[in-house]
Amino acid sequence: MEKASLQFHIEKNDYFGTLATVLDLLRQDLRKKGHRSNAETLQRLRERLMYLQKGYRIEKIRADQPLR
Fold it and tell me: Cα dist. 37→1, 4, 28, 56 in Å?
């Protein structure tokens, strides 16, 4: 994903959902090719991203803000 596209999705608060969709497409392709274990891993990651999409957003950390 290019920086402009990444920034767009963050601003629209759909980055997690967009990434989940991409992972789901990869999961479907892996499953078709017989890579069941990898497909299941991507399924779990997709579910986690959808959880984040529903309740969280990405917020930029200011340069003067200490990391926690």
Answer: 26, 33, 12, 28
